[in-house]
Amino acid sequence: MKGGSIKINVADGKVYRMMTNILLEGRYAWHSYEDKHTRLIRVMERNLHHSCNPGRIVSDLQARGFKVIDAANELKWGSKDPLDMFILTFSADENTNKIYEIANILGSKVEIQPLRKSKLIPQCKQCQAYGQTQRYCNKDPRCYKCAGKHHTKECKKPKEAQQKCVHCGEAHPANYRGCSVAIELKTLKPKT
Asked: Are 67 and 93 in contact (CB under 8 A)?
């Protein structure tokens, strides 16, 4: 592939585990993606007051036969104030149609909606690469502040020091969405 990388598609979970063991033993830099067949189902619940206890939400749904794993209150982006919305996480084998038929939780009328997809290209917090996430990354760490080969939390550069982008070398952090590389990738992202 482009840049000398190799893409490997495997047939099943057994072959995937064998391949990851080979890559780990060889100390190769690699990343993977989440298995769509085992991915948890996440939906947005609206209209349940933010003061509701997430544990009670889970208990209520489990008592009704749902394979719910977690409920987390959604927070307002800037202020972090709680909203009257919860992200509900269900087991991968739950019936999706059944989830969207939920009309009430804890005696309150609710509306279940799919999560909105982000318009941003995902960025790994481990290696700073675009198009992947840290959960499935086994590459060497890169600091988003100084572009050094270490985790950002281990960076010893003073806060006042000029930052350096891993992608373009400019004086901004690697997670800056105004970076020329991020802008170029966003224009290349297929319109859906």
From this structure: yes
R_g (Cα) of the chain, nearest Å: 21
- The vertex-159 CA angle with 169 and 128, nearest 5°, equals 40
Q: Are 44 and 115 in contact (CB under 8 A)?
A: yes
Instruction: List, in order of start, the domains of the chain with CATH numbers.
Output: 41-114 (3.30.70.330), 118-192 (no CATH)
Which residue is listed with tokens 């840049």? 3
Q: Output the pLDDT for position 159.
A: 83
Q: Look up residue 134 and give its amino acid.
A: Q
> Is the separation of the CB atoms in 146 and 82 below 8 Å?
no
pLDDT in tens, 53-100: 999 999 999 999 999 999 999 999 889 999 999 999 999 899 989 999
Asked if 107 and 120 count as a contact pair (C-beta separation under 8 A), the reply is no
pLDDT under 70 in the chain at which residues?
Answer: 1, 35-37, 189-192
In order, the DSSP letters of 152-179 are GGG--S-TTSPP--TTT--SS-TT-TTS
pLDDT of residue 173: 93
- CA 158, 163, 167, 168: dihedral to nearest 10 degrees? -150
0.70 surpassed by pTM: no
